[in-house]
Amino acid sequence: MAAVKSDLPQGTLDLLILKAVAVEPVHGYAIAQRLEQVSRGVVQVPEGSLYPALHRLENRGFLAADWKKTETGREAKFYRLTRKGRKQLETEAASWQRLIEAIGLILGMADGGAQ
Amino acid sequence: MAAVKSDLPQGTLDLLILKAVAVEPVHGYAIAQRLEQVSRGVVQVPEGSLYPALHRLENRGFLAADWKKTETGREAKFYRLTRKGRKQLETEAASWQRLIEAIGLILGMADGGAQ
DNA sequence: TGTCCATCCCTTGCGCTTCTAGGCATCTTC
DNA sequence: GAAGATGCCTAGAAGCGCAAGGGATGGACA
């Protein structure tokens, strides 16, 4: 509801995908749905962003994929985290944490108008 | 210290610049220094990112500039926030808040390995 | 049977931002 | 007068997200 449509900053999509896959192996289509649900509609991942990102992460060795059947009886490409991918997730999550703290400090600066 | 060198996600630089200028009119060179100081070295803005961003924000009407003398007696281009820019700052700050909350929800999902 | 919708995969091309790597000028300090 | 800090700028490359396309399958419904 109230789909605010916030474009993702460059680089954050990888983090979100890695996290989604870390919870349990899933296929691409489900990743997008899950991210949207968990974020309450704030994060929306169009397929034109999703699949290139998945291939990117696979090429870099962070993800690996197998074709399996979904619950609905369809063939789908299930991604899972490699050891390297899990490490990358930790690194990126830490970077993200550091970043939002830093930006928090900046946004917390006393404003000229208010206080 | 411990300059971690974290590249900024696309779009966040504008927010940081708008905020820095909102505190008080400053020139470009000082913006970079201020952001780095306040963020304790986490946010580092190379000049090749800074000046194009400033021109971008000026072209969009969010910033206005005047040449003045600095404390050190030099001519420098002081940027200040326009009314439109202040509104933009509020919008972007709110978006940022919404985004980090959403990503927080996602990163808080129970992991497959730990929890 | 035929049609529609949801599920599931993919690619091309554009637009945007960031960074690297330069250049230029002034002022102070040694 | 050489060096470093201050202060501005640009061009080019690289990367990423998105819109807009395409295709295939299965179930529901008329």
3D structure, described in words:
Two copies of one chain form a homodimer. Chain A has four helices and three strands. With 115 residues, chain A is an alpha+beta fold. Chain A has a single domain, classed as Winged helix-like DNA-binding domain superfamily/Winged helix DNA-binding domain (Arc Repressor Mutant, subunit A), CATH 1.10.10.10. A three-stranded antiparallel β-sheet of chain A has the order 1-3-2. Mean pLDDT of chain A is 90; it is low at 1-5. The A-B interface holds A 4, 6-12, 15-16, 19-20, 22-24, 35, 38-40, 42-43, 81, 86, 93, 95-96, 98-103, 105-107, 109-113 and B 4, 6-12, 15-16, 19-20, 22-24, 35, 38-40, 42-43, 81, 86, 93, 95-96, 98-103, 105-107, 109-113. Chain A binds a DNA duplex (30 and 30 nucleotides) through residues 7-11, 13, 27-30, 45-49, 51-53, 55-56, 70, 72-77.
The best one-word shape of chain A is: elongated
What's the CATH class label of chain A?
Answer: Mainly Alpha
- Low-confidence segments of chain A, given as residue ranges, are 1-5
Greatest contact pair?
Answer: A-B, 40 and 40 residues
Strand percent estimate of chain A:
5-15%
